[in-house]
């Protein structure tokens, strides 16, 4: 399940692409398919990185044309040189981080002057519903510790000489699933309605039927579970106008 629109992200041969907080590697492994791209997935979780690395072999059927590696590191203290990254992904990460400003500072430091950044966070109002339905949802170890106002986050990022060039919603179909999960969070066994909705999401992911794609397209602008924002350096954006 991809949150980043790689057509818009514009990966080019020889680009260095950093997936910051890569988790199990869904975006890093997709970037690995692009010709000549050097991909680095960084995360604090050793177990998630093991899972991500184990999936490299699974990509062989897709004939990846790049290079990839995974590294365990604190995203607020990256072992990378200044201005060394062409494309940077930070998807569904900042809502987990106590001091997310450190991440923004590191992003500013490592991204090249002509680099492009994609950040996504959960949309505020569906997330608020989850918090309201189930207190344990946000108290889970490693869970979400804040609800972002996307406009406020955009302004925070733009303080570091970035300009937002595109904003979109994603994964509206997933919102009711998480509401149901929260509603029945305390059950030892998930009820049939939750299991059935999960099967719907798997079917949507694998088959991409027109009806669920249409639902997402119509609902994403205001109900998409994720708000996805793309940034260029402000001076690059102004010179391109």
Q: Care to describe what's here?
A:
The protein is α/β, with parallel strands linked by helices. α5 packs parallel to α8. The mean pLDDT is 94. β4 (85-91), α4 (100-110) and β5 (111-122) form a beta-alpha-beta unit. The chain is globular and about 50 Å long. A seven-stranded mixed beta sheet has the order 3-2-1-4-5-7-6, with helices on both faces. The protein starts with 5 loop residues before the first helix and ends with a helix. It is built from eleven helices and seven strands. 41% of the residues lie in helices and 22% in strands.
Give the distance, in angstroms, between the N- and C-terminal Cα atoms: 33 Å
Mean pLDDT: 94
What is the radius of gyration computed over CA atoms, rounded to a whole number of angstroms? 18 Å
- Described by the principal axes of the CA atoms, the overall outline is globular
**What is the strand content?**
15-25%
Helical amount: 40-55%
Order of helices and strands: HEHEHEEHEHHHEHHHEH
Helical stretch tally: 11
